[in-house]
Amino acid sequence: EKWVDTGYVVNGDFEAETNEDGSIAGWTLSDDFKLYLKKDEYSSNKTQFLKIVENSGSAKISQEIKNVEPGTYRIVLDQDGLGNASSGLTVKCSDSKLELPATNGWDKWETITTADFVIEDTQNITLSIEGDIPASYWGDIDNVNDTLTNQINNLKSTVDNLKSTVDNLKNAVDNLKNT
């Protein structure tokens, strides 16, 4: 089964510059959550990412995704952080909810994928990463993305096959007329 990036998530790679007020383009931050964007010259990840500082307490970053079309989706993100420690954060989107697993250490990035969730009708949904961060935890999140199963590609293939069958039937009818 093939999954494709939908492009619904705004600034999921955190490459957009921080706004003048300190907010992160495309995202809403809870007031008590101290996050910032960072590039780390020593990291294997040379792009900008979301930094979770050692700041215990309730935290939330979210965005409303508008006009999501029907389909089967997943949320995918990359994380690294304090070895063998949990950030206490959960990824939530529609009916899908996944507590982020323990991180494996600094610069040991891993890709995390939520369970599939289905959108029945075009609608707005909220994507959030939220929870209670332990006092000693630090980590990073990058490349937050939503993916859609290739149902559209499968449908196109079915339509193409039907067109081919219709063409074959037309040819067979034409051949019968000519005999």
- Number of DSSP strand runs: 12
Number of helices: 1
Ends apart, CA distance between termini: 46 Å
Listing every helix as H and every strand as E from the N terminus to the C terminus, the arrangement reads EEEEEEEEEEEEH
Largest sheet: 7 strands, antiparallel
- Low-pLDDT segments: none
Overall morphology = elongated
Evaluate the radius of gyration. Answer: 22 Å
Mean pLDDT over the residues: 86
Going by helix content, strand content and strand pairing, the class is alpha+beta
Approximate strand percentage: over 45%
Overall helicity: 10-25%
Report on the structure:
With 179 residues, this protein is of the alpha+beta class. The chain is built from one helix and twelve strands, in the order ββββββββββββα. The N and C termini lie far apart (46 Å). It is elongated. The strands form two sheets. Strands 1, 3, 4, 6, 9, 10 and 12 form a seven-stranded antiparallel beta sheet that branches. The protein is 15% helix and 47% strand.
Set down the secondary structure blueprint.
Layout: E1 3-5, E2 28-29, E3 35-38, E4 49-52, E5 57-68, E6 71-85, E7 89-93, E8 96-99, E9 103-113, E10 117-119, E11 123-133, E12 139-149, H1 151-177
Antiparallel strand pairs: 1-12, 2-5, 3-4, 4-12, 5-11, 6-9, 6-10, 6-12, 7-8, 7-11
